[in-house]
Design goal:
The radius of gyration is 17 Å and the shape is globular. The chain has two domains: 48 residues; 86 residues, no CATH class. 0% of the residues lie in helices and 38% in strands. It is mostly beta strands.
């Protein structure tokens, strides 16, 4: 059979773009800000849908969120690895390919929603948000070290495609 691209549908090597309107009340952070990471609440810890906020409509309390799989955005990432009680316990350098989680711990610095910790301070699972990738050819790694820090990293989000 001869292979051909059919003209009755669109073909894209990048997959579908997924931008959805989500009510503030369904978000972990009910005061969303454009460019920040977002997490939609769900019944089971660690299973939430995550993406990046594109715009907000404060009048209707709706956020437009990009849930596109493999989209890359710059986000702040806390280098915490583990907690003891409510306190950060261990930290590590952030490197290319490291998993990054939406961290719902109350101890996260203001405006920071992502960390390298698979479990939050309350020991519940954090949701996998994506993976660290280079932002450009000169992006230096590793970022941070074995002390507490917050780093700006390019994150390839898993979105709704995992």
């Amino acid at each position: 059979m001869v292979e051909a691209i059919h003209n009755d549908y669109e073909v894209s090597s990048e997959g579908a773009v997924r931008h959805w309107e989500i009510p503030y009340s369904r978000l972990t952070d009910i005061t969303p800000t454009p460019t920040n990471p977002a997490q939609v609440t769900s019944l089971l810890p660690g299973t939430q849908l995550t993406g990046t906020i594109l715009t907000i409509d404060a009048g209707d309390s709706i956020a437009v969120i990009d849930f596109t799989c493999s989209m890359v955005y710059l986000h702040y990432v806390r280098n915490v690895l583990t907690y003891v009680g409510a306190a950060e316990n261990t930290w590590g350098a952030i490197n290319i390919g490291d998993p990054v989680y939406y961290d719902h711990s109350a101890t996260m610095p203001a405006g920071v929603y992502l960390s390298t910790a698979p479990a939050a301070a309350d020991a519940a699972a954090n949701t996998l948000f994506g993976f660290v990738v280079p932002a450009n050819d000169t992006d230096a790694f590793p970022k941070g070290a074995g002390v507490a820090s917050t780093q700006r990293c390019a994150i390839m989000q898993i979105g709704a495609g995992h």
